[in-house]
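Our consortium's second objective concerns turning raw sequence data into structural hypotheses that experimental partners can test. To show how far this objective has progressed, the report includes one record in full. It was chosen at random from the queue rather than selected for favorable results. The single chain below, 292 residues long, was entered without modification.
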Amino acid sequence: MHHAMPVIVGVPRSGTTLLRMMIDAHPDVAIPPETGFLPALADLDANQDASERAGRIITTFDTWPDFGLDAAELRQTLDHLSPITPADAARTFYKEYAARFGKSRWGDKTPTYGASLDRIASLLPEARFVHIIRDGRDVLVSVRGLWFRPGDTVEACAQDWMTRLAHTRALGAHVSHYLEVRYEALVHDSTATLQEICRFLDLRFDPEMLTYYLRSSQRLGEHQARYAPDGQVLVSKADRIRNQRFVMQPPQAERIGRWQSELSDDDVRRFEAVASEWLHRLGYGVQTRTVC
């Protein structure tokens, strides 16, 4: 039996990094920067030795520089374990990463895995998916201007928020372990929300999870620059850290409902024209602007 493995998913800018830092602050759990390669491992033939192919996928993926591991050493470890399944290769990677911090359990935080819950659950049955959800209008405020924004229009951001949510929820209904949490609840009552998550993960709650921000600067320091295939810098190390700077502070309630003061009336109307169904379905409502 393998330990329950938290896999944090959600629309980007919904609090996935905040939740990663909180769980990673647990003395037993290490969660690396975003991985991205699990769907590719899931696509390998589980009946053939995956040591060489899986090692190549993991160590040549564009996220590899963030993990602080030696590619040759990981491949050598996989070779020594041969024959192994793709799942064995994935677990070996996570185990090696967790060992850097003297931890015995691990997890993952990759927002885009929300579109691959079924494939990841098939690869790693111990995966327990935690889907964090945030008001899409606040997501719009947060993602504007960032390099990974889904588009330059309000409509593109609204469609992306709605589509990702719907897809992840639909897949979540068919996997064995799926939990939804709200960003707003995580910020307003971190203790109760984390206790709920810990029960889901068969993990004892530890108060150190509440002081995650004391370690966040060091954890974010793992992030390296991202490059295009031609060698051009897509986003610098400094920009990646700046994009996630808020996790270096305690939860900030004032970041909830920012859309009411930072979006124009036209922006709100345009977002709600696309996503009102999901705003209602999730209980956020529409046109609830604060009158100053």
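The partners drew two points from this record. The beta strands are 5-9, 29-30, 105-106, 108-109, 127-133, 178-182, 226-227, 233-235. The mean pLDDT is 94. Both points have been shared with the crystallography group to help prioritize constructs.
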